[in-house]
Amino acid sequence: MLLSEMPAIAEWLEQRLRDAHNEILFENYIFAGGDWPRRVVRILCDKAAAGVEVYITLDALGSRSFPGAWAAELRAAGARLHWYHHLQTKGLEKRLRRSHRRIIVVDGEWAAVGGFAIADDWLTGVPGTVPYREMLFACRGHLAEQGRQVFFRHRPESLPSPGTAASFPSDTLWWGFGRFVEGAPPKNLAVRRRLLAAIRAAHRSIWIATPYFNPDPIVLRAVYHAVQRGVDVRLLLAGRITDHPLLRFGIQAYYQKLMRRGVHIYEYEGAFLHAKYLLVDDSWASIGSANLDFLSLWFNHELNLELRAPLAALLLHTLFLREFAQARNIDPEPWRKRPRWRRVVEWFLVRIDRWVQAHALGQRRY
């Protein structure tokens, strides 16, 4: 199941949580205060009080606005709340490596990943006027069991037995095959490695949706080489509605070079595009939490689901076409004539970006 509308995603998540009988595994980068998050907390508390094993993992930085009273309620109901990397000065470099992952596993039967967060902004559309454009991919079968193992690698507990959860037939029997790809820098750069391999192996098309596009030079070079091979490379990026306007300026600083190399750029107009997904040759897909920027590829802990599934590829292809139709295709000629003040801002931001990447990566080999 693939969902891209936040109201539908919120409804699906709430329903799956309400239907839980044995176990709920819930991990997210952002869980903020608000009306919808409060509703989710209430469901989790009720389920824990009813005897369902509820495990929650939240990033200490991304979910810093999670109310302390909610944490106390969850623990009083019996839920096991774990904070990933509390902020502290000791071991600062390690603590700055955040968990950007999103995964929910219910009863060992359903697993869902994507870029969604538990915050009212996602449903009200702040800073825009409509809900965010998001992505949730849900599946059953052996991927749900893999999801349990992935979840507990970020927990202090060992993997418990699956209990008495019912056994669903594997979805992959009819839609294809998939596997989780974990990025856990600095030792595990699997997300970057797999994305880079897919780009290098592309023959016909590479379509990328990401709100933040700022990869390292090696990934950029692979994209340019793909265009030289005749591959149709398209980027679907956040447009005027964004949570980081200055960061958008920095991303736009690379537009002219990208378009000069033959990359097609689209900016989504109707809402803030926060979804992260990629489709190569209409046969290989990646959906999850990782942006195509150097923070996700080199620093944050990320979780993507890699799919070789004809039905999932068809759904993503159709979604891309719909989103391209609602996006602004950046025309290289008018863009070349943009105001001088924009060029000055972009030049300045490019210098900052190069400095940050150089100092952040240090002597690490690409």
From TrEMBL:
It holds the Pfam family PLDc_2. One of its GO terms (biological process) is cardiolipin biosynthetic process. Residues 95-122, 269-296 form the PLD phosphodiesterase domain. InterPro entries: PLD-like_dom (IPR025202), PLipase_D/transphosphatidylase (IPR001736). It comes from the Bacteria. CDD domains: PLDc_CLS_1. GO terms for molecular function: phosphatidyltransferase activity. This is Phospholipase D family protein. It comes from Acidithiobacillus ferrooxidans (strain ATCC 23270 / DSM 14882 / CIP 104768 / NCIMB 8455).
